[in-house]
Amino acid sequence: MPYNHSNPSRRCYRMIGGVLVERTIKEVLPAVHRNKEGLEEVIARLNEALEKKKREIADFEGKYKIRIRKSDGEVKDDSGRKEGSAQGVLVGPAGANE
């Protein structure tokens, strides 16, 4: 719900440096908008850095042929193979067939 700015002389409270101060909406609103814009810029920069790191990781995995194992034994790979599945010969206790 958007805020109604019809009364800029209305009193409000703002925390500044750990101290709650009483101001008017007219005094506080510009600072709140600047803080919001600053936070949006920080979020945008962090998202850009995240995407750059994702590309770096993908390039590193491709360069060194690294495949990440998932918790269920599957490998993050397009080949469709499962690693860690038990294939081979079952062997009983020693001397069981004698």
Précis, in short:
The chain is of the alpha+beta class. It has one domain.
List keywords for this structure.
98 residues, 1 helix, 40% helix, single chain, two-stranded antiparallel sheet, alpha+beta
Structure description:
It comes from Nyssa sinensis. Keywords: Chaperone, Coiled coil. This is Prefoldin subunit 2. There is one protein chain. This protein has one helix at about 25-65, and strands at about 10-15, 20-25. The radius of gyration is 30 Å and the shape is elongated. The chain is α+β, with helices and mostly antiparallel strands. The chain has one domain. A hairpin with a 2-residue loop joins β1 and β2. It is about 40% helix and about 10% strand. It has a two-stranded antiparallel sheet with strand order 1-2. The model has no long low-confidence stretch (mean pLDDT about 80). The N and C termini lie far apart (about 80 Å).
- The tally of domains stands at 1
Looking at how many chains there are and whether they match, the oligomeric state comes to: single chain
The low-confidence runs, each spanning 5 or more residues with pLDDT under 50, are none
From the alpha-carbon coordinates, what is the Rg to the nearest angstrom?
30 Å
Could you tell me the strand content as a percent range? Answer: 5-15%
Q: Quick one: overall form?
A: elongated
Number of DSSP E strands = 2
Average pLDDT for all residues: 82
Protein name: Prefoldin subunit 2
GO molecular function: unfolded protein binding
Keywords: Chaperone, Coiled coil
InterPro entries: PFD2, PFD_beta-like, Prefoldin
